[in-house]
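Hi P.,

Sorry for the delay on this. The queue was packed all week, but I finally got your sequence through. Input first:
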Amino acid sequence: MKRIILGLLVIPLASGLASAQVQSGKGGLSASALQTIRQGYTNTPSERALKNTIAQHGMVFASSSLRGRPDGEFSHRVPTRGITNQHQSGRCWLFTGLNVLRADLINQHKTGDFFYSHNYSFFWDQLEKANLFLQGIIDTRKKPINDRTVEWLFSNPIGDGGQFTGVSDNLIKYGVVPAEVMPENVNSNNTNKLSGILARVLRQGGMRLRQSAQTGASEKQLEAQKLQLLQGVYRLLVLNLGEPPTKFTYTLRDASGKAISTKEYTPQSFYHEFVGRDLRDEYVMLMNDPSRPFYQTYQIEYDRHLYDGKNWTYINLPIEELKEMAIASIKDSTMMYYSCDVGKELDRQSGILSLDNNDYEAVLGFPLDMDKKERIESKASGSTHAMTLVAVNLDEQGKPTKWLVENSWGANSGHKGHLIITDEWFDAYTFRIVVEKKYITDKVRTLLDQKPTMLPPWDPMFRTEE
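Then the structure:
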């Protein structure tokens, strides 16, 4: 045994565990504990082969079921046309909501491909989110800087993610325009830099508002200061995204390219003519969160995109009941807003989401078998991405075997721009759908008038889809 002498301290160096000899306090890794841990790798020929493979090719989990992978045939499918691409942005929630609405326009007016402008709606979303943050700072100005709500606000001043309430409140207030009227550009397709500078501007503005409040500024004075800050935000948005139109002339064309009508519109009049619905009153968000009691309604504080908007209310249900209403909607040729934890068990090349995609136990030596409740409570899973639910395959007994979503990652991604979801994956990683009220069951309808439980903004279900 070798020894190193440092002053009067003698540290034995045995089996590379020098530090363990020193650290012998409660909870530390002692030499005997590390010796036990080292037995996790047995250095057998099969272990060495696995180690060499991973060293050369990375941590690849082989498929545990290469046969019987789901195909692209479905018993019930809503007609769709065209695939969108959010590029390097977190606007999936906006693409999904507008995809639902553009499908209605295409089917009702028999048009060719039609797309709403995501850039136009995103512009107003960012301005409204900036106001939501700054007004939240004004509202909490008397709280200490380390108050949890204040900390949450400064940690989340703005972002490009969101959920369906951002679609409903935004469109009702600002209307919509066709994609040609305010097209995408390099900044709307790649939002990272814009989001970063907006966050810096807002955090600084939030601190200045708190400082003004501490020196005796009245609420009216703080409101005026907020408007000055928002002028700077508006200018930054115009420089990056373009200035949103107040009126425009547009020709609607049928599938053959023949003009149906040519009119002058405002964004609001275009919305009223081609959407014509109050999205806040006609849709219901259904959640599957087994970490909380079912048949309860919930709201999350600040879970909105407009300060004067609506915290989205959702009803928590068992997954089987959520699927029942999703099937009813698809059977009636109505697609819906859908969100899930898309990064789990995704084969990007084939576009398949399946629990059989990865054989973790073969590599790890033990299964990853937390249930959905445990994954939520441990922050291992949450809603991360929104897509458009367009199809389901039902077996002879009427039970779903797979689902299809229209994605917003471009036509060349996944399965022709779509993802195929096995029913088992749907159960494990689906979190919410937004359905028209006409498809909800009588049991769920009785819950609409229930007073919601208000949850804090740091609740796991707040996680925005990107």
